[in-house]
Design brief:
Length: 381
């Protein structure tokens, strides 16, 4: 009995000792082979990039400009050909200027052809007619092939915001156009208004991004020629202005908001931001309300008329800290009195984009990881 008890105690003691030694050994192995790692957290930041591609639109009416400047750009976008209710209009100036444009293109530069769909009535007709869509696509691709263009830019401008069928019609047209263009091994891009989100334009951005090689954001013309005076496309808004006045922001929408909105629906690598190198000259009343539609002026015209030397009365030129663009105020007085012996005084306001405001916006693009820019237009600056 005693002998059996001793044997049992021996095995129990040996088991406990073995268990202890095994766990101690495992702990040493774990410590040696898998040391505890210190966990660190970092904020998810967008990697700053450089501009890798610059493009410029070359309108058919600017083909007599100094062509040596074209070598400064990677892509030359000819603006362009236009459709009619029967197909591509081969009688108008844009189509007839293709040969001259091609003669200006430096070696090694990519060249794209714009389809200018800027007439509301014709656009509506085309979007409602599948047969004419097929004909326009076919004829456009034939022109692309004949003239060795590298791709197409579809400039489809729509002002009708109420027709619920338009987004679907646009999608169908674009999908067909993109598919046929890719079969011909060419690129297909689409221009979209910079204010597409602010004014709820009828574009299905996720679908259009998927059915194109890229989206060109027209980051200009936010303040319309028929509307109130203001920047071409303000860089930022001013909450302090809202607090000090009526509660409204000085600029209801801006460049930063535009990029945020587009980046939600379009991959950044598919985005190109187009800067408009021009401005508007508004005739206004004493309260700065527009009296008639503003006159469009190229940056060259603005520099010659106001910046290099301004000969108008009370000519004040100032850069706005919020929009980053420049505003000019000046007065024109009639040389002779009217029938009531009153001298008329005209008040004018000019707003415009220039190289300095573009640099600020381009630096912001790089911070957001967007690396492609373009300019409207050749001959304007």
């Amino acid at each position: 009995m005693m002998k059996r008890l001793v044997i049992i105690l021996f095995f129990v003691t040996s088991g406990l000792l073995g268990f202890f030694l095994f766990n101690n050994y495992q702990a040493k192995i774990k410590t040696r082979e898998f040391p505890e790692k210190k966990i660190t957290t970092t904020k998810n930041k967008t990697k700053k990039t450089n501009i890798t591609s610059s493009s410029i639109f070359v309108p058919y009416w600017s083909l007599n400009e100094q062509i040596s400047k074209l070598k400064n750009y990677d892509n030359l976008i000819y603006f362009g050909i236009a459709p009619s209710r029967q197909g591509i209009n081969k009688q108008e100036a844009g189509y007839n200027g293709i040969e001259m444009f091609l003669s200006f293109v430096p070696l090694g530069k990519k060249k794209l052809l714009t389809l200018r769909m800027i007439n509301d009535n014709i656009n509506t007709f085309i979007l409602e007619n599948e047969d004419i869509q097929k004909k326009i696509i076919k004829e456009t691709l034939e022109i692309i092939e004949q003239n060795k263009f590298d791709g197409i830019v579809l400039d489809l401008e729509i002002t009708d915001l109420l027709n619920k069928d338009i987004p679907i019609q646009i999608n169908n047209f674009v999908q067909q156009f993109y598919s046929e263009t890719n079969k011909n091994y060419r690129s297909f891009f689409i221009t979209i208004y910079g204010d597409a989100f602010f004014r709820r334009r009828p574009f299905d951005l996720p679908f259009l991004a998927e059915n194109s090689d890229g989206i060109l954001i027209m980051a200009y013309d936010f303040h319309k020629s028929r509307g109130e005076p203001g920047p071409n496309f303000p860089f930022d808004s001013d909450p302090a202005f809202a607090e000090a006045t009526t509660g409204k922001l000085k600029y209801q929408y801006n460049f930063k908001s535009m990029l945020k909105d587009f980046s939600k629906d379009v991959p950044k690598e598919k985005l190109t931001v187009v800067f408009g190198m021009f401005g508007y000259n508004w005739l206004v009343d004493e309260k700065k309300r527009p009296i008639r539609q503003a006159e469009a002026l190229s940056l060259n015209e603005i520099n010659n008329k106001f910046i290099d030397k301004c000969e108008f009365i009370n000519c004040v030129v100032k850069r706005d800290k919020i929009s980053k663009e420049t505003e000019i105020n000046y007065v024109v007085s009639a040389p002779t009195p009217d029938e009531q012996n009153i001298y008329r005084i005209d008040y004018h306001i000019v707003w415009f984009e220039d190289e300095e405001s573009v640099k600020i916006k381009t630096d912001y693009l790089k911070e957001q990881g967007i690396d492609k820019i373009a300019f409207w237009a050749f001959g304007y600056f």
